[in-house]
Amino acid sequence: MSGRSANDPQGADERQYHIGLRPGDVAPAILLVGDPKRAKRVAEGFFDDYGDPITEREFVTYTGTYRGMPMSVMGTGMSAANTEIAVIELCQLFEDASSVAIIRAGSCGALQANIGLGDLVITQAAHRLEETSLAFVTPGYPAVAHPEVVLALAWACEDTGAAHHLGITATAAGFYGAQGRNIPGFPSRVPAIEAELQRMGISNLEMEASTLLTLSTLRGFRAGAVCAVYANRVDNTFIADADKSAAEKRCIQAGLEGLLKLSSLAHARGDRPCWHPGLGLV
């Protein structure tokens, strides 16, 4: 008998089963990105310094500092299911989840005509079209970003000069059929979904945010999302390869600066439940 639990199969060294991390391997300020190669670009292009990456399956994590603040970036791979694994196992590494802040920096498709290719969308809340979060909460449960994270990301975008929008994000269960794309041989069951979401005033469509936000409320940590627009579904356009790198960099910088500013808001807030303008900044 191994003594390991099927409910929580971490090893004797406290290493989490899927992400391969132990307590102390990650900072409480965490940037989540989908592409593991993007995680490498964050560490190499933005961190002051960083240690060797820790990899397990598709998950890769770098921990270092950004402008002097301890920070980690994890590449999770795509989908709500991968996000669930990453977030739950990350939370096992901290005794106090309220000290943790997680921001997703990803890509998305815009659903409103006024949102340009390369712009950033800050998620205020998410429409839960994925099914992963249904394993934890009922269908009507709201997936909301922490208000401090929304403020920190808006502040970061303003400081960095990034064109940005605040809005409701729809999180789909997949990329093709779930987002209404009709590929030869694979007709979508919901081909009109983008028009329906657009009519409801939803800003963008992606595949991870609502799971992150639902789990953050359950566990009590601060979370939010900012995504670069790679496609506009209204006019059926997709970002040029030459512009994609710049959009990714703007999104990463917004996420990292957002984590930095979130620390300032938490410091000014003290033991209050949420920062507000009347508290000022320290």
Automatic annotation (TrEMBL):
Annotated EC: 2.4.2.3
UniProt record, GO biological process: uridine catabolic process
Residue ranges annotated for the Nucleoside phosphorylase domain, each copy included: 30-238
Domain of life: Bacteria
One MF annotation (Gene Ontology) recorded for this entry: uridine phosphorylase activity
Organism from which the protein derives: Plesiocystis pacifica SIR-1
Catalytic activity of the protein: uridine + phosphate = alpha-D-ribose 1-phosphate + uracil
InterPro entries in the record: Nucleoside_phosphorylase_d (IPR000845), Nucleoside_phosphorylase_sf (IPR035994)
Record-linked Gene3D superfamilies: Nucleoside phosphorylase domain
A GO CC term attached to the entry: cytosol
Protein name: Uridine phosphorylase
Matches recorded under Pfam families: PNP_UDP_1 (PF01048)
Annotated SUPFAM superfamilies: Purine and uridine phosphorylases
